[in-house]
Design brief:
By secondary structure, the protein is α/β, with parallel strands linked by helices. The chain has helices at residues 23-41, 48-60, 89-100, 114-127, 154-173, 175-184, 215-222, 249-256, 277-306; strands spanning 3-9, 15-21, 76-77, 83-84, 103-107, 133-137, 187-189, 203-207, 230-235, 263-267. The strands form 3 sheets. It has a 6-stranded parallel beta sheet, sandwiched between helices. It is globular and about 65 Å long.
Length: 307
């Protein structure tokens, strides 16, 4: 949209922003400026990525969502005193979805904050004593779920698979508290293969990289949920490492559990990537490529059927 923005002095002597242009463009530009001003008011910084996001939000989101964009609502405070809160409208909706449902299935590209925010909410629940422990799990696809190749004890074997979760927990709790919680069992690290037969009460459970689960593993995991517990399942369906032809348990769960009360689903898109702006462009480029390849395969299949 094309507008002209200038700084002026209002009647009361305060600085103001004057936006000139056609009605539709002015409305969109006003939404962008409102978003950025609210971000500054909440003590957040502004960079090129934030501006790009604000522009895409103004172009694609309905005006009714304006009031929901505020960046207040701190989830928890990190070990260094940094407030952890949603950075985008989609992140706010994701946090709300977790608050409403015992189980949430979340899909989206890398960099959208789906795992980081789930950990932040888990830490907040632990601090408020809403749960007694945090359970982290992830399918160890590379080791065939046998976990016998890396040296060391079980903890050492599964560390490489859960490093993103560790990093988020250490940021929230600090290294010393993190180690203390691990030793006490308040934070439990469990490979998905070891979850069968358990019932997890009073727990906040996070299953990461769930696109690499089989339908059988996903069913097994979801039926571990006990009383006063919450489970968040995250994954990126575009980065499945399962053998060709094998369905992802996360994709199947989205279909099977659609409409089931108590199970929430949420999907991020490339616009919601909050890492380096280049990451958003990379995700978008791969999505376009995959769509083009899918169209080619479908076209080839139709030709073969016609023959």
């Amino acid at each position: 949209f094309r507008v002209r923005i200038s700084a002026v002095t209002a009647e009361d002597g305060d600085d103001a922003i004057l936006i000139r242009g056609d009605k539709k463009s002015v409305a969109r530009a006003s939404r962008v400026m409102s978003f950025l001003i609210r971000r500054l008011t909440d003590g957040e910084g502004i960079d090129r990525g934030v501006v790009d996001y604000a522009i895409s939000l103004a172009e694609e989101e309905p005006a009714d969502g304006d009031e929901e964009i505020g960046l207040s609502g701190v989830i928890c405070v990190s070990a260094k005193g940094r407030p952890i809160k949603p950075k985008t409208l989609a992140q706010k909706q994701y946090v709300d979805e977790i608050g409403k449902n015992p189980i949430v299935l979340c899909v989206g590209p890398a960099g959208t904050g789906k795992t980081f925010l789930a950990v932040a909410i888990a830490v907040d629940a632990l601090r408020k004593k809403a749960v007694d422990r945090i359970v982290l799990t992830r399918p160890a696809v590379e080791a065939g779920e046998r976990l016998g190749f890396p040296p060391g004890d079980l903890q050492s074997k599964i560390d490489p698979y859960l490093r993103p979760l560790y990093d988020a927990l250490i940021e929230m709790l600090g290294m010393e508290n993190f180690q203390k919680y691990i030793e006490r069992g308040t934070i439990e690290i469990a490979p998905l293969a070891y979850m069968r037969g358990r019932t997890l009460d009073d727990s906040f459970i996070i299953l990461d990289e769930a696109q690499n689960t089989t339908p059988e593993q996903m069913k097994m995991f979801l039926t571990r949920l006990g009383y006063r517990s919450k489970a968040v399942v995250t994954g990126d369906l575009s980065q499945t490492d399962l053998p060709i032809g094998k369905k992802s348990g996360l994709a199947v769960a989205q279909e099977v559990l659609a409409g089931v009360e108590g199970v929430g689903t949420f999907a991020f898109c490339d616009r919601d990537v909050v890492r380096h702006p280049l990451v958003r462009r990379i995700v978008a480029a791969y999505e376009a490529y995959e769509k083009e390849e899918a169209c080619k395969r479908n076209g080839q299949k139709e030709k073969e059927e016609q023959k």
